[in-house]
Amino acid sequence: MANTIQVDVVSAEQAIFSGEAEFVVLPGEMGELGIHPRHTPLMTRIRPGAVRIKVPGRDEEELVFVAGGILEVQPSRVTVLADTAIRGRDLDEAKALEAQERAREAMQNRTSQMEYAKAAAELAEAAAQLAAIRKLRTRK
Question: In the predicted model, is pLDDT for residue 125 greater than 90?
Fold first, then answer.
């Protein structure tokens, strides 16, 4: 298909998605990015959040939660190298709520700036995961 772009989403553990897409939306370091075929090349870090992939011939977008990593965009290819990547259908709300609570407690009980920064990053990741779960729930 001439009006699609190859998308690969991988984590350290496994390939999460590989296929053609009409467009991709994901959380870049400076905000949400929308990528269509023939996009200008770019590289950026990604923030915790949902990657939405519009697969040709399907009404529902494919949803993948990512946290940390790098995005590379070429005119015919999008590559997401994520520290963490979870298929939308595999997200666990109870685990995300538990992680959020642990991060909040760690922020209150911090003994150094480094511990606080780590807890803040974990809190942001848990909040982004919960937002992705809510987005999935509203689509059903």
Answer: no
